[in-house]
Each structure stands twice: as C-alpha cells, then as structure tokens.
Amino acid sequence: MASNLEKSCSNHFRKRPNRPSNDSRKFCRCFAAEFTSTISLREIDSAGGAVTPEIQEQFERAAENCGRDVAPGVAQAGRAWATQDN
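Above: the chain's sequence. Below: its structure in token form.
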C-alpha cells in the first residue's frame, strides 16, 4: 500500500510544470510511510473503497506533518493532493 501511495503522490508532482524535486520525493516517501503507519488495510477494506472521515483525517494529518521539512510550495501542493477527492 505504501508504494502505491508514494507512486500516486509522485504522479501528482509529475503533472506540475516542473519535474519532481528532491523535496517532492521526500514529501511522498514521508506521506506514504506516515499514512500507512496509522491506517491499516483492514480499515481501508472495511470502508469498501470510500474515503471515510477517519481516512481523510489521516491523509490530512500525514500531509501536514510531512510538509514541515520541505519547501513551502511542495508542502502546499502535497496538502492539495492529499485533500482532493481520493
């Protein structure tokens, strides 16, 4: 699951005008690791493919935490990706 999240995050940054940077890769690695450490596959499976408020909260929390150690533009883009309709 972590590698799929990291790939989805990286794809978001590839769509932007500039190539993914070290900061965007750092953000995506951090996000995938943090999110998968707080949400289990069982929780995701029990949601039946829906993004529950608990899952969305963890997306937002992981994005906020991982945005602290990267450039502000990367943090903002990462938060936007995490809060969009996933």
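Residues 4 and 76 are 21 Å apart (CA to CA).
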